[in-house]
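@channel anyone free to eyeball this complex?
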Amino acid sequence: MTKGKFWRTESTVAYLFMIPASVFLLMFMFYPIVYVILMSFFRVNKLGDLVSFFGWGNFRFMFDKPEFWQVVVRSCVWTAIAVAVKTAFGLVIALLLNVEFVGKRLARTLLIIPWASSVPISAMIWQWTYNSDFGLLNHTLRSLGVWRNPPIWLAEPRSAFMANLWVDIWCGIPFMALVFLAGLQAIPQELYEAAEVDGATPWSKFRFVTLPLLSGVLTVATLLSTLWTFNDFNVIYVLTAGGPGTSTDILITYIYKYAFQYLRFGPAAAMAVITFGILLIVSIVYARSYFREGAL
Amino acid sequence: MKERERKSLYFVYPLTVFILLILLFPFFVMVSTALKPVSEVYANPPHWIPREWRWANFSDIWGKYPLGAYFKNSFIISLGTTFLNMVLCIPAAYAVARLRFRAKSFIMYLFLVVQMFSPIIVVISLFKIVALLGLLDTLLSLVLTNSVFTLTFAIWLLSGYFRGIPKEIEEAALIDGCSRLQSVVRVLLPVAMPGVVTTVIYTFISAWNEFMFALTFITSMDKRPLTLGLYNFIGRWTVQWQYLMAAAILALIPVVILFMFIERELVQGLAGGAVKG
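replying in thread with the prediction:
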């Protein structure tokens, strides 16, 4: 009977409990998404009001601009390089911290700081670090003899892109390392012992025990990192605001520029819809692999 | 075997130290600059360690910039976001964790997907909505918009905790004549306190660090939160970097410490079953 009381009203209670959160998300998440899709098919004035139906006009306007395609390509390059480097760095750090040594806990704590730090503020600190006259980065590179003539980082398109890219990578490394470390620690020690009995070298242990058992973690983490990297607004906006010109813009910052600097909400909405499509696909893949790892 | 492990430390130590030096370098720059007098901030070649340590930078900033207001605004926004977020997320997380209803797995799936959307996609239309509600240039606009983007992950995080607590505890409370609401408030929540605290910290930090919505919705100087306020240090002709860095230290310390408490839960929540072993 008591069991019955607990379960009887279940669905009703559940829906009741879900209402506040659902209404809130509908108002401020799903409605805005629908509205943006609507905007992308309309002429929109500088106040963001829909003026008249425009069909694919906004999309065509962007597609005809070579600059748009440059930004699209740059977003892909940006994401690919950053995720690859984060993954590689993260894996190396995780392998290092998986070894027992004195001071390991301290190293782990220190490693978290770049992730714990507020991204916009980190980007401001980096901006000063990159300063060509008074910043410590170039001074350090020169004094150590690593790089005699380092570039004026944020002034030229290519080096500014690299500078942005590095800050994004720097922000993302700790998360990757920590996830991989958690994954490594979940691998049963017996497997390594068994491999050793069979005379496995350190490399073959890594290749045939560590990597296969880490593949689930690798997939989830790289997908997550892909989404975050693609969405990174703060770093670029604070460091260069996409400049010089639009040479360091990625889609996310380019959309913002079109909307709130140029006040061209129509084309901005069209790009937002394209971005939405891309993100939707990647996050569905992420959600799938998340569930495949048996979270629920 | 032990011998080899000891030998491997010969490269583990230097490599770890080297990587940490690279990763922590900007924080070294931050602290060093925050302690420099102006003459040293603009010295070429720059000094790694200030010759003269000027602690007064930390007291000067309060008078020179409306830093007090920035801190207050960030606190109001973060506390408001956390409060709203918890009010919405506790019942939803309970429903998802404890109750069986149709479309549940679809909703969970949807939440996970939604959580990855960039706020940029919707900021254009959110701007319209915020304007329509007459909330432009108010702290409330940031409380609302921040909550939208923390809510789904908060529900995920918290429902995971609820699921880990045995149902029997609540059933016993129901037998003893508690209503369902009472059983949640008096029995489940106290037991799930670590999860609640984690979710609270997560929301608080996300709101504290938020930048883009503030940049878009806030125009008056006295309503800026810290991130935007500090960003506007840079917008001027001569940036007083020593003050910016001193302010950055003060802004970062609380969140970095709070973050240390929830870092493991975040890793687990984001990577899911993959790291549970």
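from a first look: The mean pLDDT of chain B is 89.
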